[in-house]
What we know:
Blueprint: E1 2-3, E2 10-18, E3 27-28, E4 47-48, E5 50-56, E6 107-113, E7 138-139
Antiparallel strand pairs: 1-7, 2-5, 2-6, 3-4
Amino acid sequence: MSCNVKDDFDVVVQIRKISASGELLESLNWSPMPAPGPKVPNVNVAKHLGQQGMLRASHHVSLQPRASEDEVPVYDHRRREAITPGDIVPLLIPIWPLGVVFEAGEGLVLRISGHDMSLPEAEALRLTAPGDENEGQHTVYTGGEYESYLVIPVIEG
């Protein structure tokens, strides 16, 4: 990724489940209890949109050594290295694992943002605008010389 005007930027990735028709899905966090009526509160204690990972780009230099490419990246966040505006930096963003069951035709969408995409803990904590310090245009590079990928382990069952 790169940013054209600032020496740092925040990146949040989110994996969302989609229906066979391409509609973004949400999970209710009420199981095994029956879900409430049609007005389920739009807060993260009631709903889960999808797993997220976050990284401040300047912290990509504090990646601890990994035993293999399949091992989840871990950062110690003890070091910051400013990024020259316009420079392309590789970012490995860990996402906490989660088990998801898919029906025929359902799929995944990878969303990339500069701010947290999860729902607030309570409605009173909802921000009216994203609370981030990102500025300028952020570019995601894929294909060709840029090996952008998402690692998803699959358990057949």
